[in-house]
Amino acid sequence: MPGPPKAPSQLCLVRGNPSKRPLNRNGPNPEKWVPSTPKHFSKQEKYWFERIAEDLNASDILTHIDGMALELLVGVYVEWRQHRDVIKKEGHLYRTESKDGNVMIRPHPQVAMMAVGLFMCSVNSDVFHAGVIQILLPSLPPDCVVVMDNATFHKRLDTQKVIDDAGHIIEYLPPYSPDLNPVEHKWAEAKSKRRAVNCSIDALFSHYMT
């Protein structure tokens, strides 16, 4: 069938290594290896690092080049679980009251951090579309309003369709309104922290950004 592959209707966990063949005859064949648990990890991070490493090793797919990727994965996963626990306890929404007495219903700040992904590449419409399907939509509660800025890759028709088909509404920010975009505030915090501690991007998101 011509055209790009269809987006999956649901994601499922595949255990083991269904395809034992290498990518190609001249493809790399790195040595099998189980990385050591990072000493700087918290107790919870160490637990999940060892558990996931055990599962990957049992599937015969863990190699010596996977250590850093696994470390980043576990850091993000544990943070996601922490946000999830807070939301379960406190709810997806909270009420605030302005100085003039108006009551506003706002999303819990932890909800915004439930769908975090780190892409080691430039973001285009294909990367963003994959992030929506694989990261954003599985993290959203029902009937959300998805607010985005006016970046071109936010407006691809099939991306809008998968969000709409999932039962959510899309709203775009006014042009040139970074003050209304919490992502801009988070990036400002990230840039400031990186300047202060002079660390790599990996270390920034693994250890400093919450």
Automatic annotation (TrEMBL):
A Pfam family of this chain: Terminase_4
Region called Disordered, residue ranges: 1-38
GO molecular-function terms, A-Z: nucleic acid binding
Positions of the Tc1-like transposase DDE domain: 121-196
InterPro entries per the UniProt record, alphabetical: Phage_term_ssu_P27 (IPR006448), RNaseH_sf (IPR036397), Tc1-like_DDE_dom (IPR038717)
Xref: PANTHER family: TRANSPOSASE (PTHR46564:SF1)
Name of the protein in question: ISHde5, transposase orfA
Organism: Hamiltonella defensa subsp. Acyrthosiphon pisum (strain 5AT)
